[in-house]
Amino acid sequence: MTISTTIIKNSYSGDASTTVFAYAFKIVTTADIEVIIRSSAGVETTKTLTTHYSVSGAGVATGGNVTMVTAPASGETLFIRRSTTRTQAVDLVENDPFTADSVEGAFDKNLAISQEVQEELDRAIKVSKTNTITSSEFATSASDRANTALGFDDDGDLTTVASFLPKGGDSALFQYSTTTTDSDPGGGYLRFNHATISSATIMYVDDLDYNATNVEAWVQSFDDVSGNATNRGRMRVSKADDLGVWHSLKVSAAVTNASGYTKITFVYIDGAGTLAADDKVFLSFVASGEDGAIPGYYYKFDTGTSDADPGAGELSFNNGTYASATVIYIDDVDQNAVSTQADTITWDDSTSTIKGFIMIYDINDSSTFARFKVTGSATDGSGYNKLTVTHLASNNTFSAADELSVHFTRSGDTGGTGPTGPTGPTGPSGSLSSLAGDSSPQLGGDLDMVTYDIVTTSNRDIDIIPHGTGDVNLGADAVQIGDNNANATLTTQGTGDLILNTNNGTNAGTITLLDGANGNITVTPNGSGSTVVSGSMNDSLSTTGKALVMGF
Predict the structure, then answer these.
(1) How far does Cα 196 stand from its chain's mean position?
(2) Which of 57, 314, 327, 526 is the most exposed place for a label (fewest CB within 10 A)?
(3) How many C-beta atoms lie closer than 10 Å to residue 262's C-beta?
(4) Please, which residues have CB within 8 angstroms of residue 136's CB and are 6 or more apart in sequence?
(5) CB-based burial, 144-165: b 16+ in 10 Å, e otherwise
(6) 68 with 21: CB under 8 angstroms?
């Protein structure tokens, strides 16, 4: 019987219910079938004939069926593959019958084996037909190959890579030294300044790596990023044969070129596992990006508070408590030696009460900042400017030499006065209840007493004193003085005379002194003074009834 197909394998997706699966190739015996179930996680399990499945259709050219004892689960894949026993069972005896079936059966078996070998070759990694490889063999022992990777040597032939390669960045292979002294760790070695790597701050790296390749220039490039001085890049030390052991470090300063080795200052970030003496390790490095342009001016902080030049490229406040600071002292140049004086002296130019706003923040820690408003003049000092400010907000405090970004936003000038608006409606008349809070009250019209009097408390006087040469006019038919039954006195201030005048100085009118009820009218001079009645025309002194009449 011929073999007319090259198919030697069928596959099906499990659904947890189907148990019968067809195969489409010829087998000689039921043992020539191999059944494999692959899980969704990629785990392959070879099943056993009779225990897990049965086979029908042996010897049939078009194949038959495999019946599973348990239906493959959903997510599993069933593979049915021909796997012919690689033996030769035809024994040709001299002068025995030479039947066609026996010869054809042997040919069929050899072809089946050949097809199966070809299927395996198809799944193998090979060089192309036009390519060459001198050797695909390597003599590295199993123990030496453990935890290594396949690769190609300088000739392009297959070999084992010494150890796993770390992920990302440039890398070189070293060995680990457990000593911590500041010296050359030895050819192909690196070490730290502390036995506990998480507590170390300096790495010492030999100029040669494990393969004796000079990597000095590469290692000393770890500080090439100058615009991000405290975060120049990330180093990673990974154990070569165990990727679960690693330590991540941040290059935080310029490297030092020592004799035969390089010293790298770093900040420990994170890690896992420990390293032992002579462990092979990969040192990899990824550079940080340069810092972007700094908004505003680049200064450093001075902690002094005196009214003086804080120093080249520095600024300070007049109070260590930022909320109490009222003056900023800022040098005439910033850290880049750029002259800023002509600009900062104009930070008070706005005609607005608030001239503008100054924002100062720590370049390396944006959560640390101070914000002020410019509320007064900017004064030109000797090598620095003094800016009058009022604190608005701040968080944390700056330390000496902290790198600062100083940014100013100007307020617009005060706008022109707008047109007067329409007069509003007259409000209701108010009531005047007290003048106690007004030291010089004024009346905008006549004072109408209505039903009340002007009185004082605590025996105070009532003084009516006109300004300058003004007079006090009493325009009433009768003027009363005195308090109830007490005597009343008309007195001049100082040495002036008391003059009773009629009709504002004309020759008309009479001055009459009357008693209230049968009383006397007494004119008594003080001391040795006299009572004088005189006039230019008709002097007389007389009484009419009970009144004293003086006529002039």
Answers:
(1) 32
(2) 526
(3) 23
(4) 157, 158
(5) eeeebeeeeeeeeebbbebbbe
(6) yes
What 3-state DSSP class applies to 117?
helix
CB atoms within 10 A of CB 530: 5
Structure tokens at 90: 């035809």
| Whether residue 168 has pLDDT greater than 70 | no
Reduced to 3 states (helix: H, G, I; strand: E, B; else coil), residue 460 is coil
Q: What are the residue ranges spanned by the domains of the chain?
A: 9-90+98-118, 170-287, 297-410, 500-552
Interatomic CA distance for residues 163 and 273, integer angstroms? 17
Report residue 225 as tokens: 């990023």
Q: Give CA torsion, residues 68, 70, 71, 77, to 10 deg.
A: -80
Token pair recorded at residue 468: 């300058």
**pLDDT tens column, 214-228:** 999 999 999 998 777
pLDDT band at residue 552 using 50, 70 and 90 as cut-offs = very low
The angle formed by the CA atoms of residues 201, 278 and 222, to the nearest 5 degrees, is 40
C-alpha span between 471 and 505 (Å, rounded) = 14
Q: Sign of the C-alpha dihedral, residues 292, 295, 299, 302?
A: negative
Strands 547-551 and 511-513: antiparallel
User: CA of 19: how far to CAs of 65, 72, 73, 245, 313, in Å?
Assistant: 10, 7, 10, 47, 83
Q: Is the pTM of the predicted complex or chain greater than 0.85?
A: no
Q: Which long-range contacts (CB under 8 A, 24 or more apart) does 310-317 make?
A: 310/384, 312/337, 313/337, 315/360, 315/404, 315/406, 317/370
Mean pLDDT of 320-325: 96
Q: Which helix (H) or strand (E) holds 202?
A: strand 202-206
